[in-house]
Design goal:
106 residues, 6 strands, alpha+beta, 2 helices, 6-stranded mixed sheet, 26% helix, Conserved Hypothetical Protein Mth637, Chain: A
């Protein structure tokens, strides 16, 4: 039996990289879970068409992490549920603590 990978973020060149899985058409915007493979499951109320989910994800993360939207970039997965997001100007340890606090609140 394989041990779970666990939640661990990585430093990118200019910020912290965050792997997310978005779940569109939810009843509320929220960080739902830390998945065993290290991704963060985020529920969003918007539909996934025409880039709405990407913009909603950026706005949600900015509000949740109390940063500006200009500090958030989607590096990969713009048309997929699984995305790689970078939080500019934030180290992985700080982001990990913030995400864990938010997940533990729910």
């Amino acid at each position: 039996m394989r041990a779970p990978r666990g939640f661990r973020l990585h430093n990118a060149q200019s910020g912290a990289a965050l792997a997310v899985r978005i779940m569109p058409r939810a009843s509320q915007d929220e960080i739902a879970d830390m998945m065993e493979d290290g991704r963060i499951k985020i529920r969003l109320t918007v539909d996934s068409t025409e880039g709405q989910a990407n913009q909603a994800l950026i706005k949600f993360l900015a509000k949740t992490l109390d940063i500006t939207t200009s500090r958030i970039e989607i590096l990969a997965g713009e048309t997929k549920q699984d995305k790689l997001v970078v939080i500019l100007g934030m180290d992985a340890a700080t982001l990990q603590v913030r995400i864990e606090q938010l997940v533990n609140k729910n």
